[in-house]
Amino acid sequence: MNEEYDVIVLGTGLTECILSGIMSVNGKKVLHMDRNPYYGGESASITPLEDLYKRFKIPGAPPASMGRGRDWNVDLIPKFLMANGLMGLFEKRRFRKFLVYVANFDEKDPRTFEGIDPMKTAMRDVYKKFDLGQDVIDFTGHALALYRTDDYLDQPCCETINRIKLYSESLARYGKSPYLYPLYGLGELPQGFARLSAIYGGTYMLNKPIEEIIVQNGKVIGVKSEGEVARCKQLICDPSYVQDRVEKVGQVLRVICILSHPIKNTNDANSCQIIIPQNQVNRKSDIYVCMISSAHNVAAQGKYIAIVSTTVETKEPEKEIRPALELLEPIEQKFVSISDLLVPKDLGTESQIFISRAYDATTHFETTCDDIKDIYKRMTGSEFDFEEMKRKKNDIYGED
Length: 400
Hints:
Blueprint: E1 4-10, H1 14-25, E2 30-33, E3 45-46, H2 49-55, E4 74-75, H3 89-104, H4 123-129, H5 134-144, H6 158-174, H7 188-199, E5 203-205, E6 212-216, E7 219-225, E8 228-237, E9 246-259, E10 272-276, E11 287-293, E12 304-311, H8 317-320, H9 322-328, E13 333-344, E14 353-355, H10 366-380, H11 386-397
């Protein structure tokens, strides 16, 4: 422990593990610690099922009808997307024309613009050009382009078109869904990036109590654990390690539901994602429903896990998600949690303490990736370049 590192990382959430791997690949000497004995932090996968009952203080043991406890790997904060939408015949034709336009769009080729200036024309006017209805606009903006508000409607359309194009190209590549979900749950992802960090010399310590983050003259110089001090030049951590440096900007409601059936009207899909746009339920925030099943090795045979999440807007949070819960009935067991949405009070450039944002209600990686790229830029002064990272990896191992 009594060593000096370029970067110390506290917490093994996905954000922290990805940044740990990136910094290690970049040649930094990294020490990664977590007070917990498991990976994932607040985004961990809980197994066996008995542990989920204990975590949510549900009395008694899971009923025998739920199968073996060790067959369950329940994500506390799922992150993936597969959207379903319904529309009429004529609406489908107009939407198809819009999607063909998106597929052919190339911001470097004015011949593909069809009278639209991608840097000036608002997205609202693009929808109007293709005569798309409000329901389709809601679906496109929130389920395909992954916007959380409608502010984008009055912004230049280029970014939105490229977001939809990315979705379409991903769908074409994988067939039924443009998204991937790891077998055994998202807990596998932090471990994967932890292994990447270790390959490049990173040191990992789980079940390590953090006694103090040492700051001198306003700048971090190390971390104290079990009486020993590890020195560092920069620190990455989740909000739980620096509660005096974060502020609450809202709350997120999540309800984990165990089902014995797939969600109705999804063609008995073993996984799906439903986004209920804010306009459809007179809210300021979208409601997300994510369903996975035994097909992903996260539940017992014949069982399904559906997780509903949204940003809290009233003093009766569970009433806010009633439209989503009605889609899931009958529900065998519910696990309800409300967590604070914490964000850093400053950018960390002076203290060199870089704090991740708490996970929001979305069930896709868009905001998490934005946070990772933002922290990377503040730490290094440059934009994250994935291709450059691959080149560094190849330079060391000579891989193609």
